[in-house]
Automatic annotation (TrEMBL):
The keyword Transcription does not apply. Residues 24-128 form the CcmH/CycL/Ccl2/NrfF N-terminal domain. InterPro entries: C-type_cytochrome_biogenesis, CcmH/CycL/Ccl2/NrfF_N, CcmH/CycL/NrfF/Ccl2_sf. GO terms for molecular function: metal ion binding. Residues 148-158 have a biased composition (Basic and acidic residues). It comes from Deinococcus phoenicis. Belongs to the CcmH/CycL/Ccl2/NrfF family. This is Cytochrome c-type biogenesis protein. It comes from the Bacteria. CDD domains: CcmH_N (cd16378). PANTHER family: CYTOCHROME C-TYPE BIOGENESIS PROTEIN CCMH. GO terms for biological process: cytochrome complex assembly. Residues 1-24 form the signal peptide.
Length: 168
C-alpha cells in the first residue's frame, strides 16, 4: 500500500496563502478600500454600508473592492463597476451628473422658490406704524358709518381739545 503524499494536502493551503498574499494591501490601500466600502450600500440591508454588514454578499463586495484597489483601479472605475453590477442603488452617494442632477437640484430649487415667496410676502405688507393709524375718510356712500355716528351722537367736525360736544 502506498503512503499518501503530503504535497496534495498542502496545495489548497498554499493556494489560499498565495491568494491572500496577492491581496495584501498597504495601509494606504486598506484605508482607501475601507473608504470606498463605506460609500457602497449592501444590496440586502437597508442603508448599511458593506463595511458594516455581516452578510455574504457584502463580504464578497468588500473582497472585490480590495481586489480592485490592489489592481490599481480608480475610485470612479470601482464605483462604475458596482453601479453596473448592482445599479445606482448600491451607491450611498450617487454621482451628481445626468438625471441625478434633478434629485440633487430639486431641494435647492424648492428652497429658493420658498425664499422668493417669503420675501415677496414680507415686502408686500404695510409697515406696522402705517397699519396702526388708519386715516379717517369721509365717505358719503358709507351708510353704516353714518348710522353709527348718528347713534353715538358724534359730530362730523368736532373742535380740537374739546370733549362731549364742546365742553372744555
Amino acid at each position: 500500500m502506498r503512503e499518501p503524499s503530503a504535497v496534495p494536502r498542502l496545495l489548497p493551503a498554499a493556494a489560499c496563502l498565495l491568494l491572500s498574499a496577492a491581496l495584501a494591501l498597504s495601509p494606504a490601500q486598506e484605508s482607501r478600500a475601507e473608504r470606498l466600502g463605506n460609500n457602497l450600500r449592501c444590496p440586502i440591508c437597508t442603508g448599511v454600508p458593506i463595511t458594516e454588514s455581516t452578510n455574504d454578499i457584502s463580504r464578497e463586495m468588500l473582497r472585490d473592492v480590495r481586489g480592485q484597489v490592489a489592481a490599481g483601479r480608480s475610485d470612479r472605475e470601482i464605483y462604475a463597476y458596482f453601479a453596473a453590477r448592482y445599479g445606482n442603488f448600491v451607491l450611498l452617494d450617487p454621482p451628481k451628473e445626468g438625471s441625478n442632477l434633478l434629485l440633487w437640484g430639486a431641494p435647492l430649487a424648492a428652497l429658493a422658490a420658498g425664499g422668493a415667496v417669503l420675501w415677496g410676502f414680507l415686502h408686500r405688507r404695510r409697515p406696522v406704524g402705517e397699519a396702526a393709524v388708519m386715516p379717517v375718510t369721509e365717505d358719503p356712500f358709507d351708510p353704516y358709518l353714518a348710522e353709527v355716528q348718528r347713534h353715538t351722537g358724534q359730530e362730523r367736525a368736532r373742535p380740537s381739545g374739546t370733549r362731549d360736544g364742546g365742553q372744555a
